[in-house]
């Protein structure tokens, strides 16, 4: 499970930190609750231990898992599957709600490619999804040992091909 001070990711909230672990008695049942603060949304959530698995709460990826994120940012084959034909599609929003860093990276790659193909830029909802996906990636990568927020932003920019 998680310990005090652990960095975790919760779907559609980005990365946060376990601030407290409290035992509460509700209706005669004692349960451990994880109190997690998410700076991206400035939200604090209290999640019961018995619901953690179903909630999608997961640890922040490790430095060794960054290669998989790079593949999602750079892999041309995922772009044709992810870019919708319509000016705007909810598919990218759905991917962001999974809480997967790989899905967020795919959204970034797809929307950068879509932006490069369009003469009038992205639809406002696509721009919001691109910003949100970038925020999710930055919020998680900056919690990996050796990365600052600026390093995380540079990491993302560096690995998006210039043609996008």
Automatic annotation (TrEMBL):
GO BP terms in the entry: rRNA transcription
SUPFAM superfamilies: CarD-like
Record-linked Pfam families: CarD_C, CarD_TRCF_RID
Highest taxon, organism lineage: Bacteria
Gene3D superfamilies in the cross-refs: 2.40.10.170, CarD-like, C-terminal domain
Domain CarD-like/TRCF RNAP-interacting, chain residue ranges per copy: 1-112
Protein name: CarD-like transcriptional regulator
Gene source species: Salisediminibacterium beveridgei
Classification of source organism: Bacteria, Bacillati, Bacillota, Bacilli, Bacillales
